[in-house]
Amino acid sequence: MKILVMLLLGITLVLAVVDINTASKQELMTLNGVGSKKADAILKHREGSCFKDIKALTSVKGIGSKFLEKNLKDLKASECKK
Length: 82
Prior knowledge:
The chain has 4 helices and 2 strands, in the order H-E-H-H-H-E. The chain has about 80 residues and is mostly helical.
C-alpha cells in the first residue's frame, strides 16, 4: 500500500505544473535539469524576493534560457505576495 501511495505521489509531481513561488525543494527537483543544488539556489533566491514571472528564474545562477525552453510547459509563477 505504501508503495502505491508513493508511486501515485511521484506521478502527480512529475505531471503537475511547478509553481516557482511556492514549490518545495522536492517539487523543484522534478524539473528537467534541477538537482539539489539548483533547487536550493531557487529557494534561497525566493527568500529575498519572489519571481514576478517565469523569465525571472534566469536570475538564479546556473539557470538560463535553455533551461526555460526545456521546462516552460511545466512552470508557472503565482502572484507575488512580497
